[in-house]
Amino acid sequence: MEFISEWFWFFLLLPVAAASGWIIGRRGGERHSDTQVSRLSTTYFRGLNYLLNEQQDKAIELFLQIAELDKDTFETQVALGHLFRRRGEVDRAIRLHQSLAQRPGLNDAQKVQALLALGEDYMKSGLLDRAETVFSDLVALDLSPLALKHLIGIYQAERDWVKAIENARRYELATGEPMGRLIAQYECELADRYRASGDTAAARAAVVRAYEADANSVRAGMLEGRIEVEAGQTTAAIRAFERVARSDPDYLPEILPPLLTCYDAVGDSTGARAFLAEMCEHYRGIAPVLALTRMVETQDGVAAARAYLARQLKDRPSVRGEAALIDLTLAESADPLATLHDLKHITDQLLVRNPSYRCTRCGFGARSHHWQCPSCKEWGSVKPLLNYAVV
């Protein structure tokens, strides 16, 4: 896991390189001649020029030269190790950062910086056990919250959810950064694990802890519903699924099938119909409309279902809705002319809403053609979609 961007290290090296030139000039003597000072200064400005022109590979090469010219500067060597890691030379980065961590005379901040860099090297090379040891030592000494964040990443990769939760809580206490949503996800992972092994009590307890970490956790609600379904607690499952839908309607298509099955199990078609009507008001997708259409067809007949669906599709056009309307028309053996008018209206709305052109570089959708993409500014990348043709 990399928490420090490549550009951060580029810009870290700029003042370091400038300072190195000043230091070399101050030292004088045989080791650091005026020629070497001039060489460092020239290399520094060439690297800066490459950065400004976004020639990153050439910039890296020159900054490596700068770091090599001043091996005694701690910050320069740390940055050099990060550049090695960025170039894929992880073994070289490990050796450099190990050497720095063992260098005598480092202050506490420098020691922490070197060890963090070494732990990141281990993570990059897949040596998670060694990385864990380094970061755990830093955490034990209460030296670096960033070490906690790295540990969270390690335990997440290893799917050790208990340790991930423990360190997420410690990180929240150390930094004040809210970690509840992440902790809730980890608790849900545990709940899934307990549920798969048949330990319903432990699964329920994990769901409760997930709610405590994030009261609006959609995943916890969906898990609670499934756990209650499997336990035969249908009414409790209905409450859980409905809470998910009201908390985040975007997940309605995920919970509708099991929720409607629960309503069927308890014989509450009135409650199901009322809930679907409520969701049709708050969710702009077609899922609750189609579900309610099927209920209307069962209870009131095909004609009523077709009329209801046709009205709804005028407000929320949908290809799936069109297919359902055609099926109902065929089942009713009704006059196809009225349905054709409805379908024409729905199709016109779909055409208006859908883009006719799309940028092949960034995916930006447009109704009209642009030679330069309004989003990514690429020239000649906006092209007609395959389903849009004028002949």
Automatic annotation (TrEMBL):
It is found in: Cell inner membrane. It is a single-pass membrane protein. Residues 357-384 form the LapB rubredoxin metal binding domain. Residues 26-391 are cytoplasmic. One of its GO terms (biological process) is regulation of lipid biosynthetic process. Keywords: Cell inner membrane, Cell membrane, Iron, Membrane, Metal-binding, Repeat, TPR repeat, Transmembrane, Transmembrane helix. The keyword Protein transport does not apply. GO terms for molecular function: iron ion binding. Fe cation binds at C359, C362, C373, C376. Belongs to the LapB family. HAMAP family: LPS_assembly_LapB. Modulates cellular lipopolysaccharide (LPS) levels by regulating LpxC, which is involved in lipid A biosynthesis. May act by modulating the proteolytic activity of FtsH towards LpxC. May also coordinate assembly of proteins involved in LPS synthesis at the plasma membrane. This is Lipopolysaccharide assembly protein B. It comes from Cognatilysobacter bugurensis. The lineage of its organism: Bacteria, Pseudomonadati, Pseudomonadota, Gammaproteobacteria, Lysobacterales.
